[in-house]
Design a protein that fits this description.
With 61 residues, the chain is mainly α. It has 3 helices and no strands.
């Protein structure tokens, strides 16, 4: 249980550090575009998990 909390804290800290880096660095890609693409990919991943979509089912056996 304690390892789970430490792992979660480390992952959240890494995400926050990455977000701070993105906000401070000058990039040709905007943060809004990255958030948009990330949210779409997350929704597709959740839909795949929810409906149990597999690559075999999509492209045949």
């Amino acid at each position: 249980m304690k390892n789970d909390i430490i792992t979660l804290a480390a992952i959240l800290g890494a995400i926050i550090a990455f977000a701070a880096f993105l906000l401070s660095a000058q990039s040709p890609v905007s943060v809004e575009a990255l958030v948009g693409y990330g949210s779409v990919l997350t929704l597709l991943g959740v839909a795949a998990l929810e409906y149990r979509i597999s690559w075999r089912g999509l492209f045949g056996r």
